[in-house]
Design a protein that fits this description.
This protein has one helix at about 1-65. It is an all-alpha fold. The longest helix is centred in the middle third of the chain and has 62 residues, at about 1-65. The radius of gyration is 29 Å and the shape is rod-shaped. This is Stress-induced protein KIN2-like.
């Protein structure tokens, strides 16, 4: 009877450890996805800023305000 109880206890601990590892892995993936999204948004923002500055420069050139 003690062997069966020990075996069940071991299996419960093993299952708990596997669940913790899976949760940790899922959190790592979510963190990586969030970081990738953040970098993508920052790159898009930089591109938009550069385009806006270029457009403003073109308008200034066309109106003679850039002299």
């Amino acid at each position: 009877m003690a062997d069966n109880s020990q075996n069940l206890s071991f299996q419960a601990g093993e299952t708990k450890g596997q669940a913790q590892e899976k949760a940790s892995s899922m959190m790592d993936k979510a963190t990586d996805a969030a970081q990738s999204t953040k970098e993508s948004i920052q790159e898009t923002g930089s591109q938009m800023k550069a385009k806006a500055q270029g457009a403003a420069g073109s308008v200034k050139d066309a109106t003679g305000m850039n002299k």
